[in-house]
Amino acid sequence: MKNRAVVIGAGLGGVASAALLAFRGYDVTVFESNATVGGKMQELERDGYRFDTGPSLFTMPFLLEKLFSNCGESLSDYLQFDELKPLCRYFWKDGIRFDNYAEREKSMEEIRRFSPSDADAYSKFLDRAEEIYNKTADAFLFNPLYQLSDLKNLRFQDFLGIDAFSTVSDVVDDRFSSPHMRQFFKRFTTYNGSSPYLAPATLNVIPHVELNQGGYYVRGGMYRIAESLSKLAEKKGVQFRFNTRVESILVEGHKAVGVKTSKGEEFRSDALFANSDATETILKLLPSASVSTRKRESQEQIEPSCSGFVMMIGAEKRWDNLCHHNIFFSDDYEREFDDIFKRKVMPEDPTIYLANTSYTDPDHAPEGSSNLYILVNAPYMADHQDWDEIARSYSAFLIRELESRGLDGLSEAAEFVEVITPEHFYQKYGSNRGSIYGTSSNNRFAAFLRPRNALREVDNLYLTGGSTHPGGGIPLVIQSAFNAVELMDRS
Ligand SMILES: Cc1cc2nc3c(=O)[nH]c(=O)nc-3n(C[C@H](O)[C@H](O)[C@H](O)COP(=O)(O)OP(=O)(O)OC[C@H]3O[C@@H](n4cnc5c(N)ncnc54)[C@H](O)[C@@H]3O)c2cc1C
């Protein structure tokens, strides 16, 4: 008889793990509390408009390619993706506009228009980002980082050379003279939901991933990634049980042996993978006797990443100034992050990300119309917030803001507005306090505090997804599935 594996959650990390396990001969069942695969990666279709409700940028495609090849398949048979040109268009309130390309020289030409001295600095910074990547990736990303021997790829002299003791902001301020380029490079810290004023400058590696390796858009929309993973898993024999929440993990002695579902069934398993948020798994799904007080307290203290305030607008109008990815920067970036992480309120003067996928995929909106996806970094949930009230007032505010930033006539053109708040990310997907990238990296030890892909206190329980090592975002979540399977093999 085949060994049986159970996976809790059909987010990207869960489905990736399920496919890997099935390819290895396990009989795999995935329990998902919602009706679809993808977790925070979902899509919405309404009145002829189509939106991705979560991720919009695809990076490090080689990890998804590796997943498919590790399952005996080829990603290109499932998914097509293209590099966007420009990668992103940036707008500042003083009228400066910067089209950022993966072709370095083209970006430097753009920078010469508004800050000539920063053009060379741009190139040097990206070389430095690549250097940090080369020094850290094997030790911190492509590795479970579970035991001391996992650090064998990190040389001590390298550790001193990865800017772990300065903040992103300090290093960026040092390298660039214009406020525009400073703000531009600080923005990448938000890709893992952290503040550039608190996170270690090692995170300056992130621009390397997008600007040197490339940023991609998946033909037909990002949700095709979730769909392709689901097809892969099903082809390998994985069974999905949707609308079925796991209520608790069954533990005997120190060993996880199965799950109990919302339908009252008990499922025994030889291997248990949890793609549910690690904090929820540890504090709510495991029996309290299986988690030491120390572990419980340390888990409670880990700061989540920021969340997101999402607005989707079907608008009967097109704006020539927009391309696919657009960023409208705030005036005071430090104040914005103080609002998010210290005051835990929506930023008074936000940086607004706007994806307009109908620019690339014209059938995502009726002719002459736009599918505007708007994302503003938001605080994770705290007691003083009333998200119903914030959804009403802040969406009206964002429409006014966008009108003042060049989207004239937006409120009249809007056929509908859909809003997603941090509370939704908590209620629908169980993300710790509504965070969207797992844990924050707002201190230099964050990489070491993030939950690992196996729990030391409970045997046979493996953790995958953005709330575990190596962190949030599509590629790292896929990597978490490799890590979890590797730790299972080691045990
Ligand atoms: C607005 C937004 C924008 C983003 N932008 C980007 C981007 O541009 N690029 C990028 O790379 N990443 C981006 N991300 C991050 C990326 O979406 C996530 O890191 C990734 O999708 C998380 O995958 P995961 O495996 O952690 O699973 P999750 O998406 O967290 O899914 C976990 C699944 O487990 C299920 N579950 C939880 N508990 C239980 C239970 N007890 N029983 C059964 N099922 C359970 C949930 O319902 C859910 O389906 C964005 C995220 C958001 C929300």
Folded structure, characterized:
The chain has three domains: 4-41 and 58-78 and 220-303 and 445-490, 3-Layer(bba) Sandwich (FAD/NAD(P)-binding domain), CATH 3.50.50; 103-213, Guanine Nucleotide Dissociation Inhibitor, domain 1, CATH 1.10.405; 306-429, no CATH class. Helices cover 36% and strands 19% of the residues. The protein has helices at residues 12-23, 61-70, 104-114, 117-141, 156-160, 168-175, 179-186, 206-212, 223-235, 278-285, 293-301, 333-343, 387-404, 410-413, 422-429, 446-449, 474-490; strands at 4-8, 27-31, 43-46, 49-52, 81-83, 88-91, 97-100, 216-218, 239-241, 246-252, 255-261, 266-268, 271-274, 307-315, 325-328, 352-356, 370-378, 414-420, 461-463. It has a seven-stranded mixed beta sheet. It is globular.
In short:
The chain is an alpha/beta fold. The chain is 36% helix and 19% strand.
Could you give the topology of this structure?
Elements: E1 4-8, H1 12-23, E2 27-31, E3 43-46, E4 49-52, H2 61-70, E5 81-83, E6 88-91, E7 97-100, H3 104-114, H4 117-141, H5 156-160, H6 168-175, H7 179-186, H8 206-212, E8 216-218, H9 223-235, E9 239-241, E10 246-252, E11 255-261, E12 266-268, E13 271-274, H10 278-285, H11 293-301, E14 307-315, E15 325-328, H12 333-343, E16 352-356, E17 370-378, H13 387-404, H14 410-413, E18 414-420, H15 422-429, H16 446-449, E19 461-463, H17 474-490
Parallel strand pairs: 1-2, 1-13, 2-9, 6-15, 13-19
Antiparallel strand pairs: 3-4, 5-8, 6-7, 10-11, 11-12, 14-17, 14-18, 15-16, 16-17
Helix pairs in contact: 1-9, 1-17, 2-17, 3-4, 4-8, 6-7
